[in-house]
Design a protein that fits this description.
The protein is mainly α. It has one domain. Helix content is 78%, strand content 0%. The chain contains 14 helices and no strands. Helix 1 runs parallel beside helix 13 and helix 6 crosses helix 11.
Length: 277
């Protein structure tokens, strides 16, 4: 891997990690287009550079993070409650991810599974917003919940939805946002829940891959500077992407991302069918 390729992957990670378009899917497809060898080291690198995106969320939501830290120290009951609900939401995917990690690596990290997940996920997003969310917001906007109304039942159901993201291309962000929308959260609140849930989920995934594939990852030439480079780029891009995403959703909703998923899925399907991937 060259430094330019590391920068490109960092940009892709930062742009897509918190958008409901699948960062893993885009990283797989981008790596394929860059001609990178599809091996354990590359899979681990694609996960490890999520650290930069995690730090971007911590920087943007430092007040929430501080509340949770104070809660763990016994100084903020609200922060402790939010922390515990994020753990409840995190656990289903953590358990299933550990059980099926090898199968996912061996069978789902490829262009066709990713393309299928992108297209199906895009259709689901559009249907949820047009059939469920918008009619609710129009008919009874006061019934839509904010993040402060999150409870343990909500957290568990959102966590179960997050399990769908174990299929590369589905998108952790999309799965959690749709799960929150089903639970009557507004699109903005759903996005913020997704951002915060990324902290334990991506943090655990990054640590797990780093420990499991450490030898393969560090065997890459210039591994350490490449990892640092990818994370720095991912942090900067993710920081501004999250800020713009909230503004975009406020005005346009989630449907444009569903349309994008379908369009990019069709493009990559054509590319794969013609031997370009």
């Amino acid at each position: 891997m060259t430094y330019l390729q590391a920068i490109i992957l960092g940009v892709v990670e930062g742009l897509t990690e918190f958008l409901p378009v699948s960062s893993t899917g885009h990283l797989i497809l981008a790596s394929n287009l860059l001609g990178l060898q599809d091996d354990k080291a590359l899979h681990a690198y694609q996960i490890v550079i999520q650290l930069g995106a995690i730090l971007a969320v911590l920087a943007l939501y430092k007040n929430r993070a501080l509340e949770m830290l104070q809660g763990l120290l016994g100084r903020n009951p609200v922060g402790l409650r939010l922390f515990l609900m994020l753990i409840v939401a995190f656990l289903p995917a953590a358990i299933l991810g550990k059980l099926f990690d090898e199968m996912i690596d061996n069978h789902l990290f490829g262009p066709y599974p990713v393309v299928a997940a992108l297209i199906v996920g895009g259709i689901v997003m559009i249907l949820i917003e047009q059939i469920l969310v918008k009619p609710r917001e129009k008919k009874s906007p006061e019934s839509m919940k904010g993040i402060d109304q999150l409870n343990y039942n909500d957290a568990l159901i959102i966590g179960l939805f997050q399990c769908c993201a174990l299929w590369p291309g589905t998108s952790r962000s999309m799965s959690t946002i749709v799960g929150a929308q089903v639970r009557r959260f507004s699109s903005i609140a759903a996005a913020e829940i997704s951002f915060l849930l990324a902290l334990p989920t991506l943090g655990a995934a990054t640590l797990y891959k780093l420990v499991k594939e450490r030898d393969a990852l560090l065997a890459m030439p210039n591994a350490t500077p490449l990892i640092i480079m990818g994370n720095i780029v991912a942090f900067v891009i993710a920081f501004f992407t999250v800020k713009l995403f909230v503004r975009f959703v406020t005005r346009w909703g989630m449907t444009p991302f569903g349309v994008y998923r379908i369009a990019i899925g069709i493009v990559f399907l054509w590319a794969a069918a013609n031997g370009l991937l």
